[in-house]
Amino acid sequence: MRPQRGGRRQPTAAEMAASAPRPPGEGSAGTAAAGEAEQRVMAASRLPPGALNLKQFLRRQQVLQLYRKILRAIREVPAEADRRYLKDWAREEFRRNKDATDEDAIRMMITQGNMQLQELQRTLKLAKS
Length: 129
Hints:
Elements: E1 2-3, E2 9-10, H1 13-19, H2 28-46, H3 54-75, H4 80-96, H5 103-128
Antiparallel strand pairs: 1-2
Helix pairs in contact: 3-4, 3-5
């Protein structure tokens, strides 16, 4: 409350809202829940429509990391024609599956990609020795 002339204080807007009569069954807990729901809606509305959730963001990072590792491994291939073929193959595989949304399918593709990367790395290691 703010002091007023003559020593009397006037209630602030927040104090007035807190002391306002409420319909039966709606206590402070109901108001808090409604406020939290409103905050969640406001927080969700701040995100752009195509924003990824945390799980999708982390999965995307895994895919990009795998792609980079594959391209780095392909750089080690000695023959230019083979390098070009493998690079085009990797690019096409990732492009073909870029619109996948099923979590299980994406996880499976990442696993397969990691196995193919390991196979390529083993083959390159054998070729060098």
